[in-house]
């Protein structure tokens, strides 16, 4: 599927902040696009998506949305926080994001509204965004603030149906997850959607009676990944958190170099280890009371599931898939129900595991 982007009005010339001006700019934008195409374009909006983050990621996020829009056409708001911007005013620019649904078909387009602001103008964000939201469609806030404080976040959440966060971009993922549990606003982390294929494939693997591994008798959990890589640590913790929630595990004690988890059938010991940063391979290994092991191995060429049971042949499946990319996960998040209950159950288990992994990594 081809994707075309159309710049508007002299390379997205900035205009003074005014929702009315932005609306007029959006309305007048389509005429030159139609003239340039020589045909009519279809304007499609399935929802409002607000991205709130720091200026250093803005080009990356534009690329993510370019890949997501064919799956979920939306009115996109790029809320570009610039901590060094001392101006008391915000500036805005608009452009169209278009894609071709089929060869020879007219382009399908949606709109991108880029609002740039600093600490002195942040108070205007809600007043600028709220009048521009397309009514009667889903509104999602995607936030990747990292360590940047943003007190206007709660004000924006009054206008959105749910919030998607990114713990892997923060300095303190544990605190990030804790704050997610404390809020009553529907909030979910993008890492939950990134681990969707892992959860689905593990479930399918254990539907096979040949596996011979007893998930109810897990006695050991080992987690390995590149040293200092935030995303693999968060993904691993979320995966084990999901598994533990499904198996009714409860964190019992955090002692020295291991973490103890209580399961209905006995105690489980969690050990982390860390690969050199140049390696991209990550492993989750479970051991049951009979000495059988089950591994989830993530490498550059895909995912391998391997079960080694005493007295049986090794059962192994290699799948050319990984955790979802950022744009794949965001597309999934926008097109599916949030399933916040399962996410929150996984987070309760993931928080102490993640805290333990990070502490152990610092001491390694």
User: Mind telling me the CATH superfamily name of the largest domain?
Assistant: Dihydrodipicolinate Reductase, domain 2
Instruction: Compute the number of strand runs.
Output: 18
Number of helical elements: 11
Derived structural class:
alpha/beta
Q: State the CATH topology of the largest domain.
A: Dihydrodipicolinate Reductase, domain 2
Rg from C-alpha positions? 23 Å
CATH class of the largest domain: Alpha Beta
Shape: elongated
Q: What is the count of distinct domains? A: 2
Instruction: Estimate percent helicity.
Output: 25-40%
Strand residue percentage: 25-35%
| CATH architecture name of the largest domain | 2-Layer Sandwich
Q: Which stretches are poorly predicted, pLDDT < 50 over at least 5 residues?
A: 1-16
The secondary-structure element order is: EHEHEEHEEEHEHEHEHHEHEEEEEEEHH
Structural features, described:
The protein is an alpha/beta fold and about 375 residues long. The chain has two domains: about 5-160, no CATH class; about 195-364, Dihydrodipicolinate Reductase, domain 2, CATH 3.30.360.10. It contains eleven helices and 18 strands. It has helices spanning about 10, 20-35, 60-70, 125-130, 155, 175-180, 190-195, 195-205, 230-245, 325-335, 340-364; strands spanning about 5, 15, 40-45, 45-55, 75-80, 90-100, 110-115, 140-145, 160-165, 185-190, 220-225, 250-255, 260-265, 265-275, 280-290, 295-300, 300-310, 315-320. The strands form two sheets. Strands 1, 2, 3, 4, 5, 6, 7, 8, 9 and 10 form a ten-stranded mixed sheet that branches. An eight-stranded mixed sheet has the order 12-13-14-11-15-16-17-18, covered by helices on one side. β6 (about 90-100) and β7 (about 110-115) form a beta hairpin. The radius of gyration is 23 Å and the shape is elongated. The model is unreliable at about 1-15 (pLDDT under 50).
